[in-house]
Amino acid sequence: MAGLSIHNVTKSFGGTNALDDVSIDVADGEFLAVLGPSGCGKTTLLRLIAGFEDVTGGRVSIGGRVVSSPELNVPPERRRVGIVFQNYALWPHMSVAENIGYALKVARVGRAEREARVKGALALVNMEQYADRRPANLSGGQRQRVALARCLVAEPSLVLFDEPLANLDVHLRASMEDEFADFHKRTGTTILYITHDQAEAMALADRIAVMDHGRLMQLATPRELYHEPANEMVASFISQGMVLPADVLTAEKKGECKVKVLGQELVVRCRKGETPRRNARICCRASQIEAATDKGEGFAGTITRAVYRGGSARVEFEPDGAPHTGLHFDQPDPVTFEAGGRARLRLTSGWLIPAAGAG
Ligand SMILES: Nc1ncnc2c1ncn2[C@@H]1O[C@H](COP(=O)(O)OP(=O)(O)OP(=O)(O)O)[C@@H](O)[C@H]1O
């Protein structure tokens, strides 16, 4: 397997940049997810790596060899990149083994070697006992495993997954997530996994590249994205983080500083070297909001919605004097908040979002 390096890549269609100066390094054997809303450039990135599109600027290297630059575009068949698509497109008239071996047959690989490689690929996806079945007689998840085996039989240097679970129902998705994770652990394949589903990305990836409008917003581990978002887009995109205006009152000390948010003074986590500033933003999570017990603390406002969900209610709240700052949190049973009611809440913690342009 080989690593992948995307270096300052730009891709424009007409005058607009579908990708704008994107740099991502995927280590040998790493599982990296590319996550972002519709139109952020995920598919374009995948097509560039596979060689179906050329780059406008920058370069793509696989295993240390440049395969794309404005002067060079190594054709897809010479990149040894495997792709697993969401619609697995298996030949219905061929058995599982024939589907997997078809490309080798076309490439005139001898029968004995072909059979051995098909067997090996089937073993990698735990499908040995299905070699003679037709795709019509397999479940959606099994078909997706055949599609993976078909890509692995060509011994790719890296594997791209393009929303491979998008067509599967919720239960199957969960079990396929486990299978992909297990497959990655067993084989150490370098994987770039494109998805707009953040739960999937979080469950599977070593690191996640969050994209928006063709730009890389943050490249970090799932935990870091959740706890230390680099900007407002990542803060609000990942797990519906709430972004609140704040003034920073004290300089950073041991990874924390004091801020004033919605009239409340609060100690939040922050990056090293933060200094006092106005018009900052903090990110807080539903679990960091609670009902104030003391009359003087926190901030007052109105409950706009309370939906009981069994064991707890999801409560939405609008602080006084900050009409466009919607907060949400869970109140465990006994649920007392009701829409239209008044309440006093307090924040217990948060993360100071770094200033725009800060590292
Ligand atoms: N061949 C093309 N010609 C012109 N514009 C294009 C072309 N391909 C993509 N784009 C534009 O580039 C941007 C990124 O598209 P892309 O398909 O990469 O996004 P995506 O993140 O994969 O979206 P989705 O999740 O909806 O598939 C979009 O604004 C899209 O309209």
Automatic annotation (TrEMBL):
SUPFAM superfamilies: P-loop containing nucleoside triphosphate hydrolases
Pfam families per the UniProt record, alphabetical: ABC_tran
GO MF annotation list: ATP binding
Name of the molecule in the record: Maltose/maltodextrin import ATP-binding protein MalK
Cross-referenced InterPro entries: AAA+_ATPase, ABC_SmlMolc_Importer, ABC_transporter-like_ATP-bd, ABC_transporter-like_CS, P-loop_NTPase
Domain of life: Bacteria
Family: Belongs to the ABC transporter superfamily.
Location of the ABC transporter domain: 4-238
Record keywords: ATP-binding, Nucleotide-binding, Plasmid, Transport
